[in-house]
Structures are given as C-alpha cells and as structure tokens.
Amino acid sequence: MTPVLSVRNISKSFGAIKAVNNVSFDVHDGEVLGLIGPNGSGKSTLFNCILGQSTPNSGEVLFKGDSVAGKEAHELNKRGIGRTFQQLSVFPQMSVIDNIIMAGQEHHGTMLSRLMGAPDAGLTEEAEQLISFFRLDHLRDQMAGSLSYGQQKLVDAAVAFMSGPGLVLLDEPAGGVNLTMLEHLKERLQTYNREHGSTFVVIEHNMEFVMSLCSRIIVLAEGVIIAEGSPDEVKSNQRVIDAYLGD
Amino acid sequence: MSEFIQIIVSGLSAGSIYALAAVGFTLLWQASQTINFAQGEFVMLPAFFVLGAMGLGAPMWLAIAVALGLSVLLLGAAFKKLIVEPMLPHGTLPLIIATIALGLLMKESVKEFYSAQGQPFPPIFPTEVVRVFGAAISVADIMNLAVSFAAILTLQLFLQRTRTGRCMQATAQNRGVAEILGVNVKRMVMYTFLINAALAAIASILITPIYLAKFSNGETLGLVAFIAAIVGGFNQIRGALVGGLLIGVIDNLSAFYVSSEYRAAAPLILLIVIIMVRPQGIMGTSEGRTV
C-alpha cells in the first residue's frame, strides 16, 4: 500500500551546516508518527522541506505517491496536507468560526464565487462540527486573538483539520499549553485519529505527550536519524538517552 | 450657531476626503507593510488625468472613468510591480525612500510637463447651497461626504461580506498562515494596491474642485492623510475614517475661531497629543513586537 508520506534521502544544508542529512522514512495511512530530537536536530527544517517552504539540496518528498517538489504550501494544503505551527497562527481579529472557515474556503470556487458567493463558502456547518469536536462552542464568535494561549492552540488544531486533510503536520502542539488543556488536546487528537483514520506527524519536546500520542517515533540528532521504533523501544535506546533524553 | 454648523459640515466634507487617502495608507500598511509617502501625489495626479482626457475632448464622465482606470493601472498595479515588489525585500526603509522619490518625480513631472500654475477643475456637483437650521450648506460638501462614505462603506462590506475580502483580511492579519491555507497572498496584496489607487483617484476628483489642480497639492494632502491614519489608528480602516473626519473638523474650527495662520499646525498638535496619550491611535489596537 502506498504510504501517505514518503521522505526519500532528504538533505538540506545551510552553508557548511548540514541541517538534515540523507533522511528517509515513510508514514502510513492512519499512523501517528512522532519526530523528536534536541534543538537544532533538523526537525523543523525537515517539516519545511515536506511543506515546500524550504527546497532540499537533494532527495524527494512524495505525498500519496506524487512528488511535492516545486509545490507551494497553499497547493499542498489544497491537496490535503494540513499543519499547525510552533507559534500561534490564528487570525487574531477574526472570530473562531471565521478562522476555521478561512481554512477551508480557498479549496474550491471560482474568482466570481469568491466575489459574489456566500461569504462562508457553505462551510459554516463543517466548521461548527469541528468547533464542537474541539469543545470550543462557547468561544464560537469570540475574536481568536482574545482567547487564552491553550484555547488558541485548540483553534489552531481545528484549523488544521478543516476540510479533512489526509495528513496533518503538528509542530509542537503542546508547547506552552497548560496540563488541563494538554490532556484535552491529546484526547481530541487521539479521538480524531481513531474516528477519521487521519495520519499525523508530530514534532514535540514534551516526552509524556508525544510518547502517549504516537505509535511510532523517529529520533533525529544533528540532522540524521539515530533511532526509530515504538515509544518503549525509543525510550530504552541508549543512543537516544545519550543524545536527547538523558538519565 | 449657523456658522458653527457650516464649519462642521464643511470640515466633515474635507475630512471625509482626507479619510479616503488615509484608508489607503492603512490598507497598504496592513497588507504589505508599505508606507506610501507618495500618497499625497497619488491624490494629486488623477485630477490631471481628468484634465488631460477633457483636453482631448472627452466629456466629464468619460474623463473621470479614464482617470479612474489610469490610476488603478499606474498608481495601483504599476506602483506595486515596479517599485514595491523590487524594493520590499530590502526592507521598509529603502521602500519609504523610494516612495518619497516617486512623490517628487510625480510632482516635478506634472510641473514640468503640464503646468506649474493651478488649473481650474470643473465642479462635479451643483454649486448651490441649501439651508439647514439657518446654515448655508454647500451641496458639494454634502455630496463629497456622501461619496466618501459610500466608498468606505463599500470597501468595508467588500472586506467583511465577500470571500475575497476575508482573504485580504487574513493576509493582513497573518500573511504566512493565509498563504498556507491556500490564500493567493500575492493577488490579495495586488487588490489592496488597486483599491488604494481607486480611493486616491476618488479623493482627487472630490477635492480638486476645492483647491484647483496643482502639482503641489499632494504635499498637504499626503501629510494630512498620514496624520489622519496615525490619529485614527494605523491598523484600522474605521480609525482612518475617524482620523480624517476629526482633522477636517479641527482644521476648519481652528481656521475660523483661532487663526487661519495656525491652520496647518492644528493636525500636528493633534498628532503630538495622540502619540503621547494613545500611541495606537483612537481606534487602533496595540500590536506586539518580538524583540
């Protein structure tokens, strides 16, 4: 079966520094893959190469068997790759529901329908379902910029799941989120994965969060994969302990 | 009392035209972090397009249509493609200097190739006055107010009630995310420049019958519109509207009740007060900066 995402021999250098060095892995349908490693290990560079925001020096990225080379981020979004950002990425002066509608409205329509058609592009119902799923109903019409950090992270996640993407890249979803909100976020992501069979790739430094969310973990250090396996296998891997986890 | 009403209405009329130019400032800033110091000249030039077209025999309505079209093409599309796009990657400061240079070029070109003398500009509205509570109110003032408000209201409705407008808002609020969500950011920024040019052309056609068409008109207009945008709030369209109206009224009141010699100082005093008391502007919101 064709993997949802194939990363083949990706290398990316910045001057003399090899940020990513010949990295290859596949992500299969419905899988939740964790990508961990110390700061500067190449995780975000790899994400940027996958999303076309950075051009690799060599190697290729395939989404559902098709090369994504030369595709811009918005084209990949239309093809079904959603993402969240390390930093907050809501539209602060738009309501929660408008933020979520915004995530889906450019997937279809003509220039004329964009000017003359319904402003919600017929997506209000779908957006409301996501709002309910992430239990944000009471915040539906509030400006996203007025929400707490954790609430904005949930809006961010809902935005990434709009229009049912085949693959969602989550960049440090737990960063800066309090424990209560973190449990809620993890439970919602697990439920979404179970109910919709969505595929996730997660970059995260919160080990408890990533180990309990992901079925497989890849560990990067200095741009290369140093370990790969189930959370338990990775936790007990001596190279990972030495390079990242510590005692 | 009748004098007071007259001054207020006349101030609101001029202020609404300043607001059109000020809205352009805020639009360009939000969409592309461009501060256009040639904005005054953008308001000066379309009047000469009208005069040029009329000189070739076009009736007034056609000359206005030609001026609008030329403005959108030259002050919108060409300005973005030929000046903003090449300069923006070098930072805000080089772009600011480029717009100052463009303003000078436009001003001197009109002076050199058209005329250094003020040119009479045909009134586009009836010159009669109507009596309201004993005050003689010019029909042109009322029409200027109505046209300016209609233009700004149409813009607001476009931004809030159409998908394209929402994409423009998304681009202004978080360009990177908008791009990833499929918004054609380059096109949205281009629309912003086209809208700014159209607003400048409308402002030009409304204000020139009051001041005559002169190459130096942009100096005052650009400064007043810039101050109006800061006073109202540089990141809010409704702020630019409030700023423009306020400056128009204060300008008129100070000219009548204090001295016309201090007229030009009134907006500057207002600017200083606003920067000291509420730096984000009357309607503006504070913007965080990572340092």
The average pLDDT value of chain A, as a whole number, equals 87
The assembly state of the depicted protein chains is heterodimer
Structural class by sheet pairing and helices of chain B: mainly alpha
Element-by-element helix/strand order of chain B: HHHHEEHHHHHHH
Q: Which structural class should the secondary elements of chain A be placed in?
A: alpha/beta
- Please tell me the CATH architecture of chain B by its name: Orthogonal Bundle
Largest sheet of chain B, in brief, is: 2 strands, antiparallel
In DSSP terms, counting alpha (H) and pi (I) runs of 4 or more, how many helices of chain A?
A: 10
Protein described:
The complex is a heterodimer of chains A (247) and B (291). Chain A is 37% helix and 24% strand. Chain A has a six-stranded mixed sheet with strand order 6-7-8-3-9-10, with helices on both faces. In chain A, strands 2-1-4-5 form a four-stranded antiparallel sheet, covered by helices on one side. In chain A, strand 7, helix 7 and strand 8 form a beta-alpha-beta unit. In chain A, helix 3 packs across helix 5 and helix 3 runs parallel beside helix 6. Chain A starts with a strand and ends with a helix. By secondary structure, chain B is mainly alpha-helical. Chain B has one domain: ABC transporter involved in vitamin B12 uptake, BtuC (Orthogonal Bundle). Chain B is built from eleven helices and two strands, in the order H-H-H-H-E-E-H-H-H-H-H-H-H. Chain B has a two-stranded antiparallel ribbon with strand order 1-2. In chain B, helix 1 runs parallel beside helix 5, helix 2 runs antiparallel to helix 3 and helix 9 packs across helix 10. Chain B is globular. The N and C termini of chain B lie far apart (53 Å). The mean pLDDT of chain B is 90.
Could you provide a short overview of the structure?
Chain A has 247 residues and is an alpha/beta fold.
